[in-house]
Amino acid sequence: MKTKIALLLLLFAGNSLTAQTVTFSHVKIHRHRSPKGHSLADREGVLTFDDVNRQITFHNAMHDRFDEDIKFEAAYDSVIKVVFDSTTHIRGEGKWTALNFISTTGIIVASAIGAKNVQDNWLYLEYKRGDHTERVLLMLPNGASSNVEQEAVSRFSARVVTSDFPEHSQDIPEGQLQSAEFKSKFAVKLDKKDHPFPTNKPDKATVVVVCPKAGLDPGQDQLKLHANDRVVAINELGSYSFAYLDPGKYRLISQSDDNDSGFETELEAGKTYYFLQNRLPHGRTVLSRNSGEVVTYLAADTYLSEWKAK
Q: Which residue from 65, 218, 244, 282 puts its CA 20 to 30 A from 256's CA?
């Protein structure tokens, strides 16, 4: 009997030594305040891998009582899918434009970080909560992204997916795009009532493209999406579009008033492809291919773009 107790104590001690709590600060969460709402709440907080209680959690760093619906706790065993993705966008002029920090002299200093490109490192998480599935999207600090991914892989292994698409956007030199569609004028109206999403068609390639708000108000600045010199979608800040294309090779270009950016890709019938038309400073744009999980999550915070030629 004493031998069994000793073995149990040794086993418990071994588990205690391997169990740990790993935290990451300055993580931002994007989460819907209500199932039917389009607006995403953005808050900064702490992401924790809690091996003692076997759960992953996020809590608002300020412990704001009005943000109880922003935090989440998910048991390790309840996690269905973890997706790591990244993209580039313009930093908005909202609450994240100026951050305060304490200098070595103890003086609070305002850091002007508006109007610059930002590399977003996304962590998308799906987990079971009762009889339904919860989704949450986190933005990771640049210096912590690889460490968070390592921690996630060590706990969720095969449930972790890292998006690594071969398409990489490049600016198109001025004058190379001669199609009349690049000079055409269009009218855009945002549908703030309905929020339809495309259905998959077996004989077509489905293209979904989202222009996130990036902290700015919806509207302003049209961004055209060209497929082989033909306009197939037009977005404004805070809108999404979709199109059905014949399978084949395409040059996809995101066009703004200041630049054209895109890449070549091959689209297959029966598949859906997801893109972000990211806004950059001074009216510029960059097109990126991203995971369906991240794009559809961000699309829920946008409105359908209804566009037509003037």
A: 244
Where are the chain's structural domains?
20-162, 170-309
CA distance 258 to 99: 28
Q: How far is CA 24 from the centre of its chain?
A: 18
Cβ pair 298, 132 in contact under 8 A: no
* 3-state DSSP helix/strand/coil % of the chain, to nearest 5: 20, 50, 30
Q: Are 60 and 41 in contact (CB under 8 A)?
A: no
Residue 30: pLDDT band (50, 70, 90) is: confident
Do 50 and 56 meet the contact criterion of CB atoms below 8 Å apart?
yes
Give the DSSP letter string of 58-86. Answer: EEETT--GGGTTT-EEEEGGGEEEEEEEE
State pLDDT tens for residues 132-152.
999 999 999 988 999 999 999
CA angle 236-310-305, nearest 5°? 30
CATH 3.40.50.300 fits 20-162, yes or no: no
Percent of the chain with pLDDT over 90: 55
Tell me 39's DSSP state. Answer: P
> Containing H/E element for 285?
strand 285-289
| pTM (predicted TM-score) | 0.82
